[in-house]
Amino acid sequence: MADKPKILIVDEEPGFSQTMRAALLTKSYEVVTADSRSQAQAMARDERPDLVILGTIMPREDAYLFHHWLKQTPPFRGIPIVVINAPREKQLVQGWRREEGITCDADDFLTKPIEPVALLPRIEKLLDRVTKRITVLVADDHAMVRDGIRAVLAVQRDVEVVGEAVNGREALAKSVELNPDVVLMDIIMPVMNGLDATEQISRQCPLCKVLMLTQYDDEENVVASSQAGALGFISKTAVSSQLLAGIRSVKQGKRFVHSAS
Fold it and tell me: Which of 65, 98, 129 represents a domain boundary (last residue)?
């Protein structure tokens, strides 16, 4: 990974979170913490962790519900999860229920007490195997265009299409719902055009980077797209390598402009 791996610790016991955080910092990982399901979901959306250490939170079923949410939400489906259950003597009131443990899809399922340092080799292996994917929302009112883009991106190991939209209003709603890394946005669409949608997305989803994708690549549209908040602009006639370069560039916060002329 080019950036420092980021790990989210979810646990209501301050002592456990602090000890785990201290161990992870010795490996120069970025660490964020949460002590409830609602806070954990907000942290996941805002921080985009590369791995989750899921301890115990109350109500007791909330740990399982958060795990289920991660597995069902497109941007987070592939990230490793290490579950650390309550001590055996507390599991009847605090830990995971037996049926939850059986049906969970974690990469590790451990029980407290645990020495955080002993976890570090396992965490390193899990992070090494993960390719951080750029999540993309494709907004275009033409099914043929959306299908073509999806076909190009499907063969890339570091890119995943997590949703599609057929107009600007739907693009805004799905950006709020899915929080993709990159939104590929057509300018001319029904209901709400791409410029208005981009302006709304820039305000409501600051982590989403918009790459304007259009057949009208005159200077006026480039300027209007930039003013609306788009970080990049690319012609629909661009070859796949240029589209991929645009997606990867805006994901890193870099401006990207490619026109047919």
Answer: 129
State how far the Cα of 23 lies from the Cα of 48, in Å rounded to an integer. Answer: 20
Domain count, the chain: 2
Per residue in 45-79, pLDDT tens? 889 899 999 999 999 999 999 999 999 987 788 89
For residue 121, count CB atoms less than 10 angstroms from its CB and return exposed for 0-12, middle for 13-18, buried for 19 or more: exposed
Residue 209, judged by CB atoms within 10 A of its CB (0-12, 13-18, 19+), counts as buried
Give the pLDDT of residue 139: 97
Which pTM was predicted? 0.62
Instruction: Choose the final residue of a domain: 78, 112, 129.
Output: 129
Do residues 212 and 106 share a domain?
no
Within 10 angstroms of residue 76's Cβ, the number of other Cβ atoms is 20
Is residue 178 located within the same domain as residue 231? yes
Q: Which domain holds residue 144?
A: 134-258
Contact 9, 33 (CB under 8 A): yes
